[in-house]
Specification:
Length: about 300
């Protein structure tokens, strides 16, 4: 048995896993802090009253909420669950969950730094908004949230009894320091709740990268269709935080087609290994299947269409 080779593989696995975890953990904490702030400082229905009743406009509004809550794919999951419990419509919540990892100031700035004000920059933001909004519209047809959400994620009814939702208490009567302590307590609890999915997703992603090196996938990339499929698979496999993935994608310019690079930049932040596992802590499996398959199909179609019809 080649013990030296096994040790090298284990060292590579450890390095990749720690890289994923160290990169993602701060943004997960940012998302749980935002979740705590929403829980403590906002009451039931504070968000829903500002969201249009029209399903399309509600989904479109949700896609733009990332400009208000700049979180990546790790931090957006606990925040989305909290927003739903506070009364945000499901269609807006789903579009926010999918779009926010791209449609926020941090990722917009990093994409701009990597690609400049060119077609890839504009197409990434536009496609993310369109795909997330359309997926959110699909969820608008479900009138019973309990069929798609886990019990812990269901919206809290106004007037619920004490102990069912602390956030329904009149927050203006509580001292500021007490509220801030509750924010930190909620953030820590949700961080440890979500971090187990981050750890497991990181282990899977690191294991796949160790077994199937990136160079294998890159060597297979050719053609308007296969290149899109390969870079989408690579985005899911690498599970790179959306705040830095633009610089990784920049390395593919000149080797892969524009459509495939956009597939990497659009689908990866929406759905990767770690975020898919986190989805299962908020939504039921049928809902998660829709949230993965619909963006996947639309991203593939958009990438292939760009490869066949655009000459960027």
């Amino acid at each position: 048995m080649d013990w030296a080779g096994l040790l090298d593989r284990f060292a590579n696995f450890t390095t990749i896993f720690l890289g994923i975890f160290v990169e993602a953990a701060p943004f997960l904490m940012l998302g749980t802090l935002a979740s705590g702030l929403v829980e403590v400082f906002f009451g039931h229905g504070d968000f829903s009253r500002y969201v249009p009743r029209n399903p399309f406009l509600a989904a479109l509004t949700g896609a733009g909420l990332g400009l208000v809550f700049p979180v990546c794919e790790c931090g957006v999951v606990p925040l989305t669950r909290r927003l739903v419990r506070k009364g945000l419509p499901l269609s807006a919540a789903v579009s926010f969950l999918l779009a926010a990892p791209v449609v926020n100031f941090i990722v917009i700035a990093s994409t701009l730094a990597a690609f400049g004000t060119g077609p890839i920059f504009y197409a990434r933001v536009l496609l993310s908004v369109i795909i997330a909004s359309f997926t959110g519209m699909v969820f608008a047809f479900e009138k019973r949230p309990e069929r798609l959400l886990l019990p812990r994620s269901l919206p809290v009814m106004a007037g619920a009894g004490h102990g069912y939702e602390i956030g329904l208490r009149p927050v203006e009567r509580e001292p500021l320091m007490s509220r801030l302590r509750r924010v930190l307590g909620i953030a820590v609890d949700e961080f440890f709740e979500m971090s187990r999915f981050l750890v497991f997703g990181g282990v899977v992603a690191a294991g796949m990268q160790t077994i199937l090196p990136q160079s294998v996938l890159l060597s297979l990339g050719s053609g308007p269709v296969i290149s899109v499929l390969l870079l989408i698979a690579l985005a899911v496999l690498l599970s790179i935080c959306s705040t830095v993935d633009a610089f990784i994608a920049l390395a593919f310019v000149g080797t892969f087609s524009t459509g495939s690079i956009l597939g990497f930049l659009v689908f990866g932040p929406m759905v990767d290994i770690k975020s898919s596992l986190m989805f299962l802590n908020v939504f039921k499996r049928r809902a998660v299947a829709y949230m993965i398959l619909l963006p996947l199909l639309m991203t593939i179609l958009a990438g292939v269409f760009i490869n066949l019809n655009m000459t960027w």
